[in-house]
User: Fold Signal recognition particle receptor FtsY from Leeia speluncae.
Amino acid sequence: MFSFFKKDKSKPVDSPASESSDVVENTTPVEASAPVAKQEDAAPKLGWAARLKQGLTKTRQQFTKQIASLFGGGQIDEDLYEELETVLLTSDMGVEATTSLLKNVRDKVTLRDLKDPAALKGELKDALCELIQPLEQPLNVSTHHPFVIMMVGVNGAGKTTSIGKLTHYFQSQGKSVLLAAGDTFRAAAREQLLAWGDRNNVTVIAQDGGDPAAVAFDAIHAAKARGIDVVLVDTAGRLPTQLHLMEEIKKVKRVVTKAEPTAPHEILLVLDANTGQNAVQQVKAFDDALDLSGLILTKLDGTAKGGVIAAIAKVRPVPLRFIGVGEGLDDLRPFIANDFVNALFDEEGV
Assistant:
């Protein structure tokens, strides 16, 4: 049975477009959602640049420590290039990106006849920014109404949390949002999404088990009936090797298109930055299956090595729409290449 949830009880609950859906109102408040909001309100408000630097602290400490040891003195020779190659590889940049960056740096050293190893830091920074710049393509949700976004990824990548944060982000832009609890395979997924819906005071279309494609279909019709701006469709987490489950998510995509011929307008793959080069393999597999339009890279606030962004840029340059550098609602923001590189190298200007 389908369920229609919204915390706001001051407005009447309309029926979703699908006549087969039973409509109920969620009148049970989600425990701890209000205290969390109060804690966030009481916390010092840092700007995004400061939170980006703060979130990348562990990544930066490891990276800059290795870089500083290379460029502290000596001369530019093959030994230095070999050490730099090791640093880049151990930073999750991958073979292809590392090879490209080294070639770029070598060419600039030769062209400018550089002798001081310290000058290589600036050249490396510029080369990295140049490599990942094409991934900087902000998401524009004003092109369709409703704008339908499918969220995909493996279990544990932070998909449901990213949906909650995206909801908050779109609301801050004055957009109305509706959530579709399409992960009907995992018992806790529905409850987690309902909690985020309650926290953000948005509608959630859900079903107790059953067909995830039907949930998506019903949600899109409900959004049309209500004039909703953005629909976020959750899907079950799956590994790229689980071919039967990948076929299931292809079905969700087909049914979304039946509900709205121009949709889905965005298919976002959520990646855990801690998985390193495995994230690149996930991008390849999901892109081949679903034709991805964007990525979200989460958990950059831990020990993750942000170099995987360079690997993705070189191997499969799918636009990186958002990055997450913390647990707060405001810690998921659009990816800006120059800000990311400056934060990684601990430079001013971000």
